[in-house]
Amino acid sequence: MFHLKQHSMKRRTFLSLAGSSLGVAAGIHYGQAQSVTKMDELWLALEHWLGQQLPEVLADLNPGCSNKELSELERRLNCRLPEDFKAFYRRHDGQKGETTGLFCGLPVLSTQALYKHWDGWREIADEDQEIATEITGESYPNGAIKPTYINVKWIPLTYDGGSNHLGIDVDPGPAGVVGQVINFGRDENNKFVVASSLSNFIAWMLAQYQSGNYKSSERSLDLKEPRNSHFLDVVPLLFGRP
């Protein structure tokens, strides 16, 4: 009788743990679905705003990627990309580059251009580990971004013409989160978490545009406040320590 009771208790424990695991899995899938839905809604709002205010930028957006193309990109980058990143690129595969950049003047890279820039950083890291692992500057918040010059798990989203980027960090520091948006590159010694996710960055950027905090011309799109001619120059003011 003792053995039967013990076996029954173990089975109930197993079922409880299994139910808990299923609940966690369901929660993850629900969270991913929410992330995709949020990005789709943000794109609709952003496209509407662009159509009214900057139709040339809207026309500069490429058609979206297929799931197959995104899976191939993940294979080539050797990482799992955040769901909102994939939802972003399923809608539009970056820009053609014939007008100003969507991200506060920074052009959004196509997946093909994204991989080219990433591969350039990977080659540097492979050729010179000392440079790649050199610690330059600080992370804001402290511990959110790994203190290194090159990390092949930093996926570039934009390019400023001088080897500097906004990108997705899929290998954060202990105080960071996977998928956070950061600055990095040749001149970006201090790294800042610009947003906890690409969705949150798009939401922040859209709010700036909708509130009128922008100035634009044929080849430029900048924030009015803080005053700047290059978005990366004001990242420390916007997202650094108070």
Structure characterization notes:
The chain has 242 residues and is α+β, with helices and mostly antiparallel strands. It has one domain (32-239): SMI1/KNR4-like (3-Layer(aba) Sandwich), CATH 3.40.1580.10. Helices cover 50% and strands 12% of the residues. The protein has eight helices and seven strands. Strands 1-5-4-3-2 form a five-stranded mixed β-sheet. A hairpin with a 2-residue loop joins strand 6 and strand 7. It is globular. The model is unreliable at 1-31 (pLDDT under 50).
Task: Report a brief summary of the structure.
The chain is of the alpha+beta class and 242 residues long. The protein contains 8 helices and 7 strands; from the N terminus they run H-H-H-H-H-H-E-E-E-E-E-H-E-E-H.
Strand arrangement in the largest pleated sheet: 1-5-4-3-2
CATH architecture: 3-Layer(aba) Sandwich
> Radius of gyration from the CA trace?
21 Å
The CATH topology name reads: SMI1/KNR4-like
What name goes with the CATH superfamily? SMI1/KNR4-like
CATH class call:
Alpha Beta
